[in-house]
Amino acid sequence: MNALIRTDALTKSYGDNVALDGVSLDIHAGECVGLLGPNGAGKTTLLTLVEGLRMPSSGRVELFGGDPRDPASRTRLGSTPQATALPESLKVREVLDFVGAHYPARTDEGALVAEFGLEPFLGRQCGALSGGEQRRVAVALAFVGDPELVLLDEPTTGLDVDARRSLWDAVRARHRAGTAVVVTSHHLEEIEQLAERVVVIDHGIVRADDTLAAVVAGVSRRRVSLRGATPSDIVTLDPDATATEEDGVVTAVVSDSDALVRALVGSGIPFSNLAVRGASLEEAFLTITKGAA
Question: Strands 5-14 and 58-63, how do they pair?
Fold first, then answer.
């Protein structure tokens, strides 16, 4: 299958700072890929290379089988960068028309406006919108040219919880319609809501690349919750555990939940409401980027 994005041993350095260090990835039609990593991990650098905004130091990057710096390679690509920069004097409807005119095909504007909730903004100047409203417009603009692939870099920056969920619904609708999506986010819940595949980058290196379920399952950490014991009790029984308490419920993340439960029973510490489950994406992410997986 031909890849929409293909990178091979891709590196990018800024002086002595290595932003990407031998990244090899293929992203195919119809995928929704979550790109995770700490600040400075190389996520945004990777997207700018795919968009043809920067040149790699070495290695190869292809977009739709061609050079991303060739405008012809970008006609099926949409993107939303981290920074929102809409022309303040233009109305939202005018910006949709202006951006759409640069593409050979257009997404049905009525459907796009409905999905992203833009109807109240169409007649307003972009400069009169709040930061969250501008962000919603910016993400919608990534889909205006009926793209096969969209890159979303921190798409819900500045949005409250309800607005984030509404935007997730809109992105999911575009994905169901056939658009491949690559999304970076500091909200791990966002990746859980949107992505089917997760790529974890840390210090410019791909640390994990698999389905969401496989990345979480591949981390040998378990979450144990209970009442009665204290966080210090848990750490005394398992010095490698991390334990917190909220509203009387102690939550511990451990590598061996069975051993902790046995130690609890043997200690005689009274406890109740014991529950054990697998790691969350957040716990998997922290474990992978700390090199503990």
Answer: antiparallel
Q: Helix 161-176 to helix 109-116 angle, to the nearest 10 degrees?
A: 150
For 144-173, the pLDDT digits (tens) are 999 999 999 999 888 888 889 999 999 999
Please say if the pLDDT value at position 220 is more than 60: no
CA distance 279 to 224: 10
Say how far apart CA 256 and CA 253 lie, in whole Å. Answer: 9
CB atoms within 10 A of CB 236: 15
> Which residues of the chain does CATH 3.40.50.300 include?
5-217
Superfamily designation of domain 5-217: P-loop containing nucleotide triphosphate hydrolases (3.40.50.300)
- CATH topology for 222-289? Alpha-Beta Plaits (3.30.70)
Q: Are 172 and 148 in contact (CB under 8 A)?
A: no
* pTM over the 0.85 mark: no
Two tokens, residue 95: 């910006």
